[in-house]
Amino acid sequence: MPAGSIVHRATVLFHDARTLATLGPTPLGRAWLFLTYLFAPLKRRIPGLQRVPIRLPVRVGRHVRNFTVSNAPHMLVIKEIFAEGIYEVPQPPPDPRVIVDLGANIGAATAFFLERFPSARVVAVEPDPTTYRKLAANVGRDSRVTLVHAAVTGRPSTSAELFASEASWDSRVVPEPSRGTVRVPAGTLEQILQRIGVDGFDILKIDVEGMEHQIFATPGPQDSAELLIGEVHPTAEISNPERLVDELRSRGWEDCRPFAHSVFYLTRKVPDTNRGSL
Question: pTM for the complete prediction?
Answer without folding.
Answer: 0.90
